[in-house]
């Protein structure tokens, strides 16, 4: 037991990948093969602390929260806002276009459109039924 304690004390503590200060805390996070103080693991875009999150993402040496990772790297993008769509996002589909639920709204009045609502699409732009008939088709 004493041998283990002495051996452990001779090993230099790992440095935090976030702040560069040696980690002396009893508990720390190991993400992307790098050690982090709990308070130092943050999304590189929004700076949200990721200590309590169930997952985070690493790409090109940067750490991202789920929202920012999908926003920047997702292959599927919302036709209205252009942000990425994650597998867990609720979406609306119209023709070959995909929209976040909150982005599927009339371009003129802003009314959110739900399944079953009358809507029209012209050049990737969404209109409620009323404005499609009065503004687009006339």
From TrEMBL:
Q: Which Gene3D superfamilies match?
A: Cysteine Rich Protein
Tell me the GO molecular function terms: DNA-binding transcription factor activity, RNA polymerase II-specific; metal ion binding; RNA polymerase II transcription regulatory region sequence-specific DNA binding
Entry keyword set: DNA-binding, Homeobox, LIM domain, Metal-binding, Nucleus, Repeat, Zinc
Q: What sequence ranges are listed for the domain LIM zinc-binding?
A: 14-75, 76-138
The cellular component terms of Gene Ontology attached to this UniProt record, alphabetical and capped at eight, are: nucleus
**Which GO biological process categories is it annotated with?**
neuron differentiation
Q: SUPFAM superfamilies per the record? A: Glucocorticoid receptor-like (DNA-binding domain)
Per UniProt, subcellular location reads as: Nucleus
**Which Pfam families does the record associate with it?**
LIM (PF00412)
What superkingdom does the record give?
Answer: Eukaryota
Q: What is this protein called?
A: LIM zinc-binding domain-containing protein
The organism that produces this protein has a lineage beginning with: Eukaryota, Metazoa, Ecdysozoa, Arthropoda, Hexapoda
